UniProtKB/TrEMBL annotation:
CC annotations in GO: replication fork protection complex
Listed name of the protein: TIM protein
Gene Ontology terms for molecular function: DNA binding
Phylogenetic placement of the source organism: Eukaryota, Metazoa, Chordata, Craniata, Vertebrata
Subcellular location: Nucleus
A Pfam match: TIMELESS
Record organism: Erythrocercus mccallii
Length: 182
């Protein structure tokens, strides 16, 4: 709902939900209770994953960026700071660059190999066909069809055009004046 259409109860409900999320994320970690395997996700990480799966993170991004929802800005800021509670800025920056840098390098190598393969195929295709197209389709003598003299007709087009051959091929049709047209 737009903020103009919300009633007081809706506003209170939104605030209570944001406070609940903040309080859940505010619970301090207890290493004695979390006896998991090395590399296993902590309770905090699992809560963050559940928020992501439910779409709450997208809702928080909307609340943080929407101009009309500025009343929730401090609640959202507090939730976001609690989301990144266990990470240091250096770790986050290195993590983002490390995977992006490695993936970028891998993608670049993949694209380069694909480009080299494509160029090789293009060169092979260019070598298979002649460099210039010959417009000369051949000349054929049509035996049995007489031209103007006693000689047979010489046909200068491709054989696929032979069925549409007439003696009027290439001649300008006679123009009939308008007043004599049917």
């Amino acid at each position: 709902q737009d903020w103009e259409q919300r009633q007081e109860e809706d506003t209170l409900l939104i605030e209570r939900i944001l406070l609940l999320v903040r309080n859940v994320l505010h619970v301090p970690p207890d290493p004695t209770e979390e006896q998991g395997v090395d590399g296993d996700a902590s309770v905090h990480d699992r809560v963050l994953w559940a928020l992501h799966i439910s779409g709450m993170d997208d809702l928080l991004k909307f609340l943080a960026s929407a101009q009309v929802e500025q009343q929730w800005a401090l609640h959202v800021l507090e939730i976001i700071s609690l989301m990144f509670r266990d990470q240091s800025p250096e770790e986050l920056a290195a993590l983002g660059q490390g995977t992006a840098g490695a993936e970028h390098g891998e993608d670049t190598r993949e694209l380069e190999t694909l480009r080299q393969r494509e160029l090789a195929e293009k060169r092979a295709r260019a070598l298979q066909r002649p460099s210039r197209h010959s417009r000369f389709g051949g000349s054929y003598v049509l035996q049995g069809l007489k031209s103007i003299g006693d000689r047979d007709v010489v046909f200068h087009k491709g054989l696929h055009n032979l069925k549409s051959y007439t003696h009027d091929l290439g001649k300008e049709p006679r123009r009939v004046p308008r007043h004599r047209q049917a």
